[in-house]
Amino acid sequence: MNLPKIAHVRAYVVRGGGADYHDQGEGHWIDDHIATPMSRYPEYRQSRQSFGINVLGTLVVEIEASDGTIGFAVTTGGEPACYIVEKHLARFLEGRSPTDYEKIWDQMYFSTQYYGRKGLVVNALSGVDLALWDLLGKLRGEPVYHMLGGAVRDELQFYATGARPDLAKEMGFIGGKMPLHHGPAEGEEGLHRNIAELAEMRSRVGPDFWLMLDCWMALDVNYATRLAHRAHEHGLKWIEEALSPDDYWGYAELKRNAPTGMLVTTGEHEATRWGFRMLLEMECCDIIQPDVGWCGGITEMIKISALADARGKLVVPHGSSVYSYHFVITRHNSPFAEFLMMAPKADAVVPMFHPQLLGEPTPENGRMRASALDKPGFGVELNRDIALHRPYTH
Ligand SMILES: C[C@H](O)[C@H](O)CC(=O)C(=O)O
Ligand SMILES: [Mg+2]
């Protein structure tokens, strides 16, 4: 069957809302004294926005086929990513068939390799890849998860990331991941406060509920090892992204140092099969956490997941809403998914990519039926009531 060819690629920047790096208003738990690599500077300790976490904004990529069908995706990267998409990547799509996603990915990656490989460029590339899968699904009338081989279970189950695992438990989630609030620069007192917060949460949720700590690249091996051992006494299930993503050696050491039974997880700021191969071959962790919108998109996720599967490792993607749900439901080595609580007080389930997406499914009682994904493509529409700014054209 010949599908319509790709006619046009467009890239927009959006301010406000969204998940994680996207702009959140004041008083949101996600920007409240979270330990980061910048916490060593007191003036950048209270708010991640103070050092510019939200400086780029959201990237929206649209790919229009010659019959007028539009696929789209949302990720991070903002205006600089718009430039890369419009001025560089678009040439590898326009005039081509949307079925050629392997060749398109290969050309996008290798043509940008001299200035890319990770970070912003791979965010942009991921946005294009996700928009392409959305377009393909819309043209074929199939959900992305069908194109990935179909569901291996009837429903997704979720853990929640946010400041209130106790409320997440009441909402039916299988676990709660809290941000770590104090980094090494806050010394022994900070460590003590981190452990006290964990202990307090353990007392609220009881002995069996999963509790995890997200350290957002803020620690060193020594601090992370001490934190892990002290947290073990309070039943911490995993310690996440404790070190710089470049410190593969440190992760390998932390994995050796961690108490038996505690999982070491990382990878949300890693990209491509080559980056994840490093994490896997160097025995850096137990669970890898690629973000579908940052690691190279669905086309690359398939390869990353296969590498992990062959090594008996789990893939539990970072956030990314529908873009990860369609993947997780198709893989046995992705037994559960993350839900990032975007309600400012983490006290309600609200869509992760609000207000950019319309029709975004959310977990109910910590679960989501596969049938909630049964719409063409990623099953969501772009909210055209938001201000979409197209800074570049080609
Ligand atoms: C809460 C973390 O600091 C970060 O904002 C989200 C994240 O890393 C995760 O969901 O994982
Ligand atoms: Mg994380």
TrEMBL record:
Entry binding sites for Mg(2+): 214, 240, 268
Enzyme Commission identifier(s): 4.2.1.90
Free-text remark on how the cofactor is bound: Binds 1 Mg(2+) ion per subunit.
Binding site for substrate: 22, 48, 338
Keyword rRNA processing: no
Marked site (Transition state stabilizer) residue numbers: 338
Alphabetically ordered keywords of this record: Lyase, Magnesium, Metal-binding
Domain Mandelate racemase/muconate lactonizing enzyme C-terminal: 155-261
Any one of the GO BP annotations: carbohydrate catabolic process
InterPro entries: Enolase-like_C_sf, Enolase-like_N, Enolase_C-like, L-Rhamnon_dehydrat, Mandelate_racemase_C, Mandelate_racemase_N_dom, RHMD-like
Similarity comment text for this entry: Belongs to the mandelate racemase/muconate lactonizing enzyme family. RhamD subfamily.
HAMAP family for the chain: Rhamnon_dehydrat
Other facts: Reaction proceeds via a syn dehydration.
Main function: Catalyzes the dehydration of L-rhamnonate to 2-keto-3-deoxy-L-rhamnonate (KDR).
Name of the protein in its database record: L-rhamnonate dehydratase
